[in-house]
Amino acid sequence: MRHSIFFRIYASLVLLCVVVALIAYLLVQGVNYKRAQAYREEMAAGVFYIITQGIARQTSAQTRQNWLDDASILLNLPLKLVPNDSIEFSRREQELLEHEKSVVRYNSDKIQADIYTKVPNENLLLATRVDKAGEQQIKAMAVFMLDDLVYYPGQEQKRLKEIRQHFPYPISIQPVSKLGLDIDQLSRIRRKEVIMLLRDGASSTGANISVVSPTGNGNEVLVMGPIPMFNWLPFHLFASVTLIGLLLISLGVYSLILPLERKIRLVRNGLNQVRTGNLDARVQVDGEDEIDTLALSFNGMAEHIKRLIEAQRELTRAVSHELRTPVARVRFGVEMLADTDDYESRLEQQLMIDKDIEALNTLIDEILTYAKLEQGTPSLNFEEVALYKLVRQVAEETRNLGLEPQVLTLEPDHELLVSAEKLYLHRVMQNLAGNAMRYANRKIRISGGVENGKAYICVEDDGPGIPEKDREKIFEPFSRLDDSRTRAAGSAGGYGLGLSIVSRIAFWFGGHISVDQSPDLGGARFKMSWPVKRPRT
Q: What average pLDDT does range 436-462 have in this prediction?
């Protein structure tokens, strides 16, 4: 499961989405931290500018303290004056103070903010600590604004223009009739009360509030706002984070698909090379997923095709050579039949022709069998086979040939059943027994059984054996050994296909064929082993 390409992609996508979501969360948190800090500074700057202007107008220490106490009560905040050099400020904070803005130091653990604003023309700071901002503080802003305008009779609009530079929202004096207030709100205005107007987030400007305060002129009111409320996820931030997230996911998906695309391209290149005739083309395998499995299958297919073509060429060459001798003998025999009238001679030639035709039949049968086993997966019907019966049957068939070597057997347990294609297993034992009879001096031995969890059949002889350097070569088609074993056999040698057929059958059985020296008889020992039980597919 862990090597499944789909599992890896899906798991990687889930992990990618989790990572992107975490990045998006951290990004929103980081951006909002900056936005919230800027919002606090903007909201505090205008209000505390008006307050410090009021402090600066006081002519004596006592009146200043009284004014400060009244302001503290009105705001419900502890206001105090501290020396400028008693607080350490960063360069940015110093620049804010020099530009008549407020420094806000927010403590997220205690959920409170310390606010510092420079008093004009003095080495003093107005300091306060805010832990919440409610209706009382908002309404107090209008009171401070009206108090400031009292010092500019007849120049209220000019003063408002100056003040607006310190506020992030509009401030104006408007006729009360233009505000569209309801009866309750109008009655409160007549009672000289400060009212607040709330606009929800469905409006184009988002959620905001406006502060409306009556002035000395009963037909006009001071309007502060709309004051935007802080939006933790405005559309532009949402859109930016979404686009960044989609970009990261796209890059992540591309990084997942790129290796697969490269592997598919390698497989395609390999296919194109094979199509153009390069049978040595192979695809590099560097993993264990489905595409790597496909690459392995392609490499196996290319190797098999190459082997088939080479085998076909070798088979064509060898067949033309092997057929030439018996055909020439048949032709010679036919010519002899035409040239002689002697009955005995004609009978002898006829028998020789029959033997040559039988040899041709045998050769053709072996060629067809080998070609069938070599060119592709043969139709195998595996069944439970009693191995002892097959050993006994082949031994009897070998004895019935009437040849001189004695045929011995070591029959396995009669209860032993092995999984095999009976026809092909019989062919293996026949070929091995026939090969042993050709090279044995006095006896051969046929046996079978189970060893190390594998079924096996074994055929041994007491002939000259096979040199170790030639033990791999004898399983090649049409191979013959120019050694004492071949010479000892005289003209009894086969066509070099019997052991090749045995080797291919062992391959399709999922087994192995080997040859070594018989420890008991001294000659060659051929042993084929394969799984006792064939795995279910």
A: 94
Same structural domain, 393 and 525: yes
Instruction: Assess whether 387 and 527 both reside in one domain.
Output: yes
Is the confidence at residue 483, as pLDDT, over 50? no
Cβ partners under 8 Å of residue 494, min gap 6: 366, 434, 435, 438
The answer to whether residues 44 and 115 touch, using CB atoms and an 8 Å cutoff, is: yes
What's the confidence (pLDDT) of residue 83?
92
Tell me: the pLDDT tens digits for 271-306?
888 888 888 888 887 777 778 888 888 888 888 788
Are 420 and 527 in the same domain? yes
Beta bridge partners of 227: 209
**Tens digits of residue pLDDT in 199-216:** 876 555 578 888 999 987
For 84-234, where are the alpha helices, taking DSSP H only? Answer: 91-98, 135-149, 156-164, 183-190
pLDDT tens-digit series, residues 219-261: 889 999 888 888 888 888 889 999 999 999 999 888 888 888 8
CATH number at residue 18: 3.30.450
Separation of alpha carbons 81 and 240, rounded Å: 43
Percent of the chain whose pLDDT exceeds 70? 91
CB 304 within 8 A of CB 291: no
Is the same domain home to 139 and 115? no
Question: Which of 80, 115, 130 lies at the terminal end of a domain, its last residue?
Answer: 130
Q: CA 236, CA 289: separation in Å to the nearest integer?
A: 42
Domain boundary among 300, 325, 350: 325
Q: How many domains does the chain have?
A: 4
Cβ neighbours of residue 401 under 8 Å, at least 6 residues apart?
Answer: 437
Are 385 and 527 found together in one domain? yes
Report CA Rg, the chain.
52
Residue 133 Cα distances to 51, 271, 502, angstroms: 16, 73, 95
Minimal CA–CA distance to 146: which of 227, 50, 80? 50
Domain that holds residue 515: 381-531
Question: Left, alpha or beta for 510 (phi > 0: left; psi -120 to 50: alpha)?
Answer: left
- DSSP tally for the chain: helices H, then strands E: 13, 15
Distance from chain centroid for Cα 219: 73
The number of angstroms, rounded, from the C-alpha of 71 to the middle of its chain's C-alpha atoms is: 66
How far is Cα 429 from Cα 446, in angstroms, rounded to an integer?
A: 8
Q: What is the pLDDT of residue 392?
A: 95
Same domain, 42 and 100: yes
* 179 lies in the same domain as 202: yes
Q: What is the pLDDT of residues 128-142, one digit of tens each?
A: 998 887 888 888 888
DSSP three-state, residue 528: strand
pLDDT for 504: 87
| Tens of pLDDT, residues 264-277 | 888 888 888 888 88
The per-residue pLDDT for 481 is 63
Quick check: 190 pLDDT over 50? yes
Q: Is the same domain home to 78 and 187? A: no
What are the tokens at 215? 């002035």
CB 184 within 8 A of CB 212: no
